[in-house]
Amino acid sequence: MITRVDSVRPMTVEQNTLASDQMPRHVAIIMDGNGRWAQQRGKPRVWGHKNGVESVRRAVSFCRQKGIASLTLFAFSSENWRRPEGEVSTLMELFILVLNNEVKKLNRNDVRLKVVGDTSRFSDKLQAKIQKAEELTKNNTALVLNIAANYGGRWDIAQAARKAAQDSIDNNECVDNISEAAIDKHMCLADQPPLDLLIRTGGDFRISNFLIWQAAYAELYFTDVLWPDFDETAFTEAVGAFVERERRFGFTGEQIKNQTVTSPCPIIEQE
Ligand code: IPE
Ligand code: IPE
Ligand code: MG
Predict the structure, then answer these.
(1) What is the pLDDT of residues 27-71, one digit of tens each?
(2) In sequence order, what DSSP letters do the residues of 135-162 get, joined into one string?
(3) HSE-up of residue 165 (Cα within 13 Å, Cβ side)
């Protein structure tokens, strides 16, 4: 019998690993390929962003139907400010438009909306809309929809590390004692199930500074499908690939098959 390894919280049998017939609890998507989708149709790049909204609706509805607890969508990275001014401002306008048009429907469908990222760089108007939408939907429980906006994985780690260091100072503790768990509890999404599946559309094989901490043991899935074409069939394929994977978390395949581990779930042990 092998006991649990460091950083792995023991779980009950019921909570135990995602068996191959189980759905992921937390899916994140790098929604890439909007610009190319539009260019292939002889349209400006922003046309692709506008058409990507329908794919967001489809993905939310898919997760609601399948009982996935959390969906995290990468909408705007901390590096996307580098894009032409016109594209950035259209993306901001689109964000406001989507909040205006979709929040009531999300609320009716028991979806909680959460925006993760450094929102302080957004206009006051957008920040106010985000706050209002989060407030309206805060008690919903069917699905948490996290929109990563002005998000960067390095920013997330740095802000969590700063808070952990402040905790340490406030408690008169030595910084040498700052553990992974002490940082993890301040990471965006710490209140949600660990990331199981990270999908990237658009054909590139990189993380682009998305959930670099949370993806430590996520299953990665890359597809050539461009985001505006990402539909229920494409999502089903991604989840189908996920359920076929054997997640080992550092153990051997035999240990997993023989159930000799307490739990391979890579949740950082809480203090
Ligand atoms: C992703 O699509 C959306 C955002 C980054 C906002 P892109 O705009 O990156 O589309 P491609 O990759 O250029 O085709
Ligand atoms: C990642 O896509 C960001 C979002 C999907 C919001 P990018 O298109 O910005 O990524 P890179 O620049 O190709 O790595
Ligand atoms: Mg791109």
Answers:
(1) 999 999 999 999 999 999 999 999 999 999 999 999 999 999 999
(2) HHHTT--SEEEEEEEEE-HHHHHHHHHH
(3) 6
Sign of CA dihedral 104, 115, 39, 239: negative
Please give the distance, rounded to the nearest whole angstrom, from the Cα atom of residue 31 to the centre of ligand 2. 8
* Strand ranges for 117-264 from DSSP E: 143-151, 197-200, 219-222
If one counts every other C-beta atom within 10 angstroms of the C-beta of residue 39, the result is 13
- If you measure from the C-alpha of residue 263 to the centroid of ligand 1, how many angstroms do you get, rounded to a whole number? 38
Nearest bound ligand to the CA of residue 82? 2
Which atom of ligand 1 lies closest to the CA of 36?
Answer: 14
Q: Give first-to-last CA distance, the chain, whole Å.
A: 25
Chain-centroid distance, C-alpha 48? 21
Q: What are residue 76's DSSP bridge partners?
A: 149
- Taking residues 76-93, what's their average pLDDT? 98
Number of residues that this document lists for the chain: 271
In terms of Cα–Cα distance, which of 84, 88, 98, 87 is closest to 52? 98
Domains and CATH numbers, the chain: 2-151+195-257 (3.40.1180.10), 158-192 (no CATH)
For the question of residue 196 being annotated catalytic, the response is no
Q: Which residues line ligand 2 (CB under 6 A)?
A: 30-32, 74-77, 80, 204, 206, 208
pLDDT value at residue 260: 76
CA–CA separation, 226 vs 136, rounded Å? 32
Q: What pTM was estimated for this model as a whole?
A: 0.92
* Active-site residue, 204 included: no
Beta strand 70-77 with 143-151 is: parallel
Residues 36, 156: Cα–Cα separation, whole Å? 29
